Amino acid sequence: MNSLLSVPASDLPKTLHKWLSGLVCGLHCFYFVLNMIFMQQMNLGAVQLLVACCSFYFFWVALKNRHYAWHRYMLMLLLTCNILASALIMGLKAGSIFWSFALPLWYYLLFGMKQGAVFTAIVAILFMVVLLVNPDAEMIRPYRTVLNFVLAYLSIWLVCHMYEIQRKKSHDILQRMALQDGLTGVQNRHALKADFNRINKQIGSTFMLLIDIDHFKRINDTFGHDVGDNVLIEVSNLIRNHVPSNNIYRLGGEEFVVLMENSHKDDAYRCAESVRALIENYSFYQKETNIDLTISIGIAPLSVGQDFTDFLRAADEKLYQAKNEGRNLVCK
Ligand SMILES: Nc1nc2c(ncn2[C@@H]2O[C@H](COP(=O)(O)OP(=O)(O)OP(=O)(O)O)[C@@H](O)[C@H]2O)c(=O)[nH]1
């Protein structure tokens, strides 16, 4: 299923990357001035100038809405190396090691759960080594420092990991709710539109089957809305048993769509005809009554230059023809 909601989800790392690049640039300009002028730490100042320049470039590119994954990796690599180098050169007194506690959060938000966990683990080991070999090791008790660092770092890591699991779960639920029809469980109109935008628009080999239950209003009027709902669920299940569920959508009301990619028009017709016959020969048993139903189907091929509305309209015209010609028909 194509994800409509994956747009904001995949925007999060992009947005974070953009503003983090800006922040990193600003901070490193500040630290560059501090180190060069006041601390006389030329090497560190040079590293910070390099990070500031690179992050400014990433920020500037991201501002133009151009996003490259390698910019993200590069930004975090530079930032991590810079924090490590500061801790190594300046020792613990400078306090730059505190920035390491922000890294797990950034890794998880920028790279997701798997890569976030791997980067966090690697960096944890590197920082432990830095703590053990740092120039202040004689002044402090490095093992206690390492232990405290590990515990603090682990707790932040744990929070990031739990947060990412919860975020992904909520995202999946929201995505399902946004793209699924609440009554029948098949995909909805949003999903159809998103899939239309995603499909490789192979003209002449993508077909839309627009399916409409004949005289559905009578079912509602005769047996009640709840029976109408059950019939809609059963119809969708029958279609689902016949074509891959990834390709079925409920447009709304008693209209369903089957999207067929990489197909020949004869395949599309055969599929539509078999679904029509299936419903015709099926008896819907509701409220101790057998209800016989038929459906009409319009088939349209995707043509050159058609957008979603045109494609749907073309299928709708064929459906209208099937209805006009007496219903329980497939028109192509
Ligand atoms: N039970 C139920 N009925 C619905 C739902 N959505 C739409 N309907 C009903 O579906 C009916 C559609 O009726 P019409 O558009 O007149 O079409 P029809 O009776 O199927 O007639 P033709 O399409 O011309 O064969 C209306 O009575 C709507 O109230 C739903 O979710 N559940």
UniProtKB/TrEMBL annotation:
It comes from Marinomonas phaeophyticola. Coiled coil: none annotated. It is an enzyme of class 2 (transferase). Its EC number is 2.7.7.65. Gene3D superfamilies: 3.30.70.270. InterPro entries: Diguanylate_Cyclase (IPR050469), GGDEF_dom (IPR000160), MASE6 (IPR048435), Nucleotide_cyclase (IPR029787), Rev_trsase/Diguanyl_cyclase (IPR043128). It comes from the Bacteria. It catalyses: 2 GTP = 3',3'-c-di-GMP + 2 diphosphate. Residues 204-332 form the GGDEF domain. The keyword Coiled coil does not apply. This is diguanylate cyclase. Keywords: Membrane, Transmembrane, Transmembrane helix. The chain crosses the membrane at residues 20-38, 44-63, 75-99, 105-133, 145-165.
